Amino acid sequence: xxxxxxxxxxxxxxxxxxxxxxxxxxxxxxxxxxxxxxxxxxxxxxxxxxxxxxxxxxxxxxxxxxxxxxxxxxxxxxxxxxxxxxxxxxxxxxxxxxxxxxxxxxxxxxxxxxxxxxxxxxxxxxxxxxxxxxxxxxxxxxxxxxxxxxxxxxxxxxxxxxxxxxxxxxxxxxxxxxxxxxxxxxxxxxxxxxxxxxxxxxxxxxxxxxxxxxxxxxxxxxxxxxxxxxxxxxxxxxxxxxxxxxxxxxxxxxxxxxxxxxxxxxxxxxxxxxxxxxxxxxxxxxxxxxxxxxxxxxxxxxxxxxxxxxxxxxxxxxxxxxxxxxxxxxxxxxxxxxxxxxxxxxxxxxxxxxxxxxxxxxxxxxxxxxxxxxxxxxxxxxxxxxxxxxxxxxxxxxxxxxxxxxxxxxxxxxxxxxxxxxxxxxxxxxxxxxxxxxxxxxxxxxxxxxxxxxxxxxxxxxxxxxxxxxxxxxxxx
Length: 477
Known about the structure:
The protein has 477 residues and is an alpha/beta fold. Helices cover 40% and strands 16% of the residues. The chain has 2 domains: 8-219 and 429-441, Aldehyde Dehydrogenase, Chain A, domain 1, CATH 3.40.605; 224-420, Aldehyde Dehydrogenase, Chain A, domain 2, CATH 3.40.309. Helix 3 (46-57) packs antiparallel against helix 8. The longest helix has 17 residues, at 28-44.
C-alpha cells in the first residue's frame, strides 16, 4: 500500500523513537529474537520470494534467486547470533598513567543509535534489504525501510512479510515511488543506509545533511579485473563469466571491465566464450539466464553496444544457439564481450550493470595501476594471477572498497569481513562486526580514580606551586 509521505512516514519514525525512549536499548534476548525472526521469515517464505522476483524481472532464475536473495543473506544472521554476546560486551581501553594503577577505568560502551533508515535497490531486492538488518538489529536499533519501486511485486511481498513478523516500531517497510523516496531520505533518522547509484546517492546525502543524519552509502562503480599472464586463463574466464552473467550482470560488484596482459588476451577471449557456452547452451528459453529488469535499462545497454561498435570496438556476442533476440517477451541481452575499448566509449564512462564485458590489453602492470588510479575508486577490484610481487603491487598501489584475488565478489561473501566502498564508491560498512560497529554509538566511558586518591590532582590545581613542568614532563614519559 502506498502512503502519503507528508505525514505517515513521520508518524512511523516518531512512534519508533518514542518506543525506544520508553523501553530503552533492547537486551541481548530481544536482539537475538529479532535476528532469529529474520531467518525464519526468509526460510519460511523462500518460494514466495523467488516467484515474486521472477515476476518482477520477466525472467529471473528461481535457483539464482534462492542463492542470492535467500540463502546468501542467512549467514550474516547466523554469524551475528553466534557472536552477539561478545560484540555487546564493553571494550576495555588503557587509562593514562598513573591513574590506571590507582583504579581509573577506560572502556567503550556500545549503544544503539535508534532508528536506522534503509533505501534499497532493485537488483537484489531481498538480499540488499535484509542483510543489513544483521548489523542494525544486533546493534540494538529499529529500522524503517523503503524498497525499490522498480520491483513492485517483490516490494509488496516484503512489506507484507515484515509486517507479519515485526511490529512497526521494530521494523517498518514503506512502498512508493520517487516522491516517497525523497521524503524518506529527508527524515531525521539516527542513521541512513542507501544502496544504489552514485547520482542518487549524492541527493540522499544532501537530504540527510539537512538534519545532520550520518549516512552509509554503497554506490558501486566500475570494478576492474586485472588478468596476469601467470593466471590460469580457463579457470579465470570461468569465474569471471559466472559472476558477469549472474543476474545478467546487474550487480554492484560485478566485474565491470577487464585489463588482460597482451600475451594471453586471445586465449582469454576464447575461454570466455567457451566457458559461458557451458553455463548456457541457449538463452531465450532458458530460465537460468536472467532478463534485464526493464525496457529503460535494456535500451541503455543496447546503446552502449552500438556506441562502442561505431567507435571501433570488436563486438563478440556469446549466443550458443544462434537465437534471434529481436522479438522477445522479456529484455534479455546475450553475454557480450566488447574488445579494445577506450574511454571515449560510453560503456567506459558509467557503471554497466548488465551482461556486457569490455576488454582491453596491457603490456606492463604500471600502466594498469596508473589507469585505475586515474579514475574513481571502485567498490571492488579483482586480480587474477600467481605472481606475488604483482599481487602486492595491486594491493599497495590502488584503492578500492574491497579486493578479491583469483575470483570476483568473494570478499562480500565472507561473514567476518566488512563490506563497503571508498570515496565515490561509498562510505561505511555493514557486514559482520563492522556492521555492528557501524550502527552503534561507540561511546567512550572513563571512570576516575576513587575519592580517596584525590590528592593526586593537587599538583595541577591552583594555587600552583612547586615544579609543575617537571611533573608534566614525567607524565609524558
